[in-house]
Amino acid sequence: MAIVFEKPKALADVTMHYCPGCTHGIIHRLVAEAMDELDITGMAIGVAPVGCAVFAYNYFNCDMAQAAHGRAPAVATGIKRANPDNIVFTYQGDGDLAAIGTAETVHAATRGENITVIFVNNAIYGMTGGQMAPTTLLGQVTQTTPYGRTEAANGYPIRVAEMLATLEGAAYVERVTVDSVKNVRNAKKAILKGFQYQVEGRGFSLIEVVSTCPTNWGLDPVEALDWLREKMLPVYPLGVYKDKFAQEVGK
Amino acid sequence: MSEKVLMKGNEAIAEGALLAGCRHYFGYPITPQTEIAAYMAKRMPKVDGVFLQAESEVASINMVIGASAAGKRAMTSSSSPGVALKSEGLSYLAGCDLPAVVVNIQRGGPGLGGIQPSQADYFHATKGGAHGDFHMLVLAPNSVQEMLDYTYKAFDLADQYRITAMILGDGILGQMMEPIDISPKEPAKLPPKDWALTGTRGERKPNIVNSLYLNPEDLEALNFQRFERYRQIEEKETLHETYRTEDAEIVVVAYGAASRIAKNAIDLAREGGVKAGLLRPITLWPFPKKPLRELADKVKAFVVAELSMGQMVEDVRLSTESLRPVYLSAHTGGVVTTPEEILEHIKQAAAN
Asked: Of A166, A160, A171, A225, which Cα lies nearest the Cα of A197?
């Protein structure tokens, strides 16, 4: 019997702790598939964040570090500068990357650190039970914006991909999502490219993945995907925001 | 005979690190330690090393965490307000059992404080330095030569015990110049870093560098293990120096720059007929409790001379079980004590 579908080798054979309908599982799988396809698992070193993905260090079959909240790009910088032959990636959520770790993110990008950043944007702090994130939408109700996020009190959501695209040091920045088969395939391509660029020494890549949090959004998994499409994608449009080497590598 | 080179204390620290094979330095400018970064910026490219000026103190210590996790000798340096910012990383280094060398060339505080020499970060350095149950191994040089020698040693100790070794200096030691010997040293025999993140290369299970343990029993067991290592450090690595203590009635306890001033005070006291001596802790953690306790049986009183409102004085009282009076000769905020002031305290202690 032919095997048509199996677990990527770079994904550890353990049960993940993610909630039903959470898209972290898909994104982990895409990262692992990219590692398999490029045959880099043995050289890879991942850096887990603080937040829902903190246990990522148990989910990949490669060396892993767990960083303090927001510091993953700095830890990854230290690892990559120490061992430039390793393939170094961070996996971070929106609170980690775009609030407490904004400085580390921006400066790793502007230095053009040759690392790959997987940025999961679900517009909320998941692990702590659903508080406002820097990416929380205007009007969105969270535990710490019980009457909805307002411009006056909380300011506006941060668009990370657009912001980093302005930095010369960033080689490749794309925003993708995983709400449909087509979009999952696109996300896979983007993640693969992010790692490929690092293998080729092209510098800093960030792939922002617009993601769901059914538990803290108070929606079922299907409703959450609808909410992502209806509410999040207009604020966070998909697409390539920066590709320094687009002409060279062709599309 | 090796040739001597005239160097600043801060530069000697950098040179000591290079001699120890440190090729990864992550820094951020702050007075009065910036010469370390400047020296590293010049030298690292010439030895195929990495010098990186980070976006913040926080980022620089996390870069040290990364490089250390990757199995390399790594260092960062700063001065008091900057070291406060590094505290988060100090705790993670301990929680991950990573070796690192961190330098604090202290200045006056609190807050932005001043830029003049101080020893006000004694508590921060010796009582943990951040959240959680842990220690750093704290070395307190008192000359430019020792800035080099103890920085070199700090790397060996850090690797041996998987601990952060801190060089606790001050603005005087950082800025002063002395002729020193910078010849290479014999490398120590150290355990292999088989825990390091270097990529599995398909040949071993993944290594994980982590400080998160949700099961309290697991975390307690790990802290017990770590404290067993600390106990070994206390037993084997405690360092101190004595000066004229054999027949001393009054013993001054001072470290770093203050210990040099204290030596002068002791000589002045002896000239005046008071039998004074000095005990100078070289490791501040572990603290030389034993020799102090032994002295407590022989002497009349202790005088602690420090450039803070009185921090080490607490450890002296604990170590001597308050068997003898402990007087404090203190200056703070960047004001440096004089031998005459310490002499006054010695005389007072002798007269009481």
From this structure: A171
Terminal Cα distance for chain B, rounded: 49
**Residue A118 to residue A77: CA distance in whole angstroms:** 15
Domain B241-351, CATH: 3.40.50.920
**CB of B208 within 8 Å of any CB in chain A?**
yes
Domain residue limits, chain B: 4-199+222-237, 241-351
Contact A78 B71 (CB under 8 A): no
Give the fold, CATH level 3, of B4-199+222-237.
Rossmann fold (3.40.50)
**CB-closest option in A41, A45, A75 to B65:** A75
Q: pLDDT by residue (tens digit) across A188-226?
A: 999 999 999 999 999 999 999 999 999 999 999 999 999
Does the ipTM surpass 0.95?
A: yes
Yes or no, beta carbons of A103 and B67 under 8 Å apart:
no
Tell me if A76 sits within 8 A of A47, measured CB to CB: yes
Contacts of B202 (CB under 8 A, 6+ apart): A41, A42
What is the CATH number that goes with domain A24-249?
3.40.50.970
Q: How far, in Å, CA of A76 to CA of A81, rounded?
A: 8
Is the minimum CB–CB distance between B116 and chain A shorter than 8 Å? Answer: no
- The beta-carbon neighbor of B62 closest among A44, A78, A87 is A78
At A128, which helix (H) or strand (E)? none
Find out whether A37 and A192 touch, Cβ atoms under 8 Å. Answer: yes
